[in-house]
């Protein structure tokens, strides 16, 4: 069953309070952190409930879902979507007109297709490069060794605005164990003069904030379990 609006609002308020507390503990301004509500697998009603509670940025993993959700809530002013999942080049045409940012650019050929689509649409698309800091074969993301070449390529593309880096660290039971991976991403961003750091999810976003996250991607802690299969 879809989450009830009050439940979504209460959970959202609790997540925001945790973000504020984590930021203050790290001597950071809570306003410097963007919360992306990961709405993968949630019905439009859940997004509307979060919107009513003040949420404006939503994260989706699949092109087909972005198309459906965008159409379902396009009447709501100021709503923005971030694409946060693995993206095939042939899906770029569906994603580019509907999102404010693609957080999961992990290779040059994908960047070139996004650039082509954004340029044709007369816009400059914000992007992050996804980095596989843990070196896990099961995860997407550019390797740290390949990052300099991708950064150079993306910066030369007129249709893309490179804002920073994103990562999904290895799964750990204790969120504190994820901190070295977040710190590694922060160091890579500093190396390349990049400011945005998208890292941290429901389980570990406080640890990510302690290491400098400027974007956190939180789904389950806001919406609960997915209401239907995401695609």
Which tags fit this structure?
single chain, TIM Barrel, 231 residues
Provide a descriptive summary of the structure in words.
- With 231 residues, the protein is an alpha/beta fold.
- The chain has a single domain, classed as Alanine racemase (TIM Barrel), CATH 3.20.20.10.
- Helices cover 39% and strands 16% of the residues.
- Strands 7-6-5-4-3-2-1-8 form an eight-stranded parallel beta sheet.
- Helix 6 (147-155) links the parallel strand 5 and strand 6 (160-166).
- Helix 1 (5-25) crosses helix 2.
- The longest helix is centred in the first third of the chain and has 21 residues, at 5-25.
- 42% of the residues are buried.
- The mean pLDDT is 94.
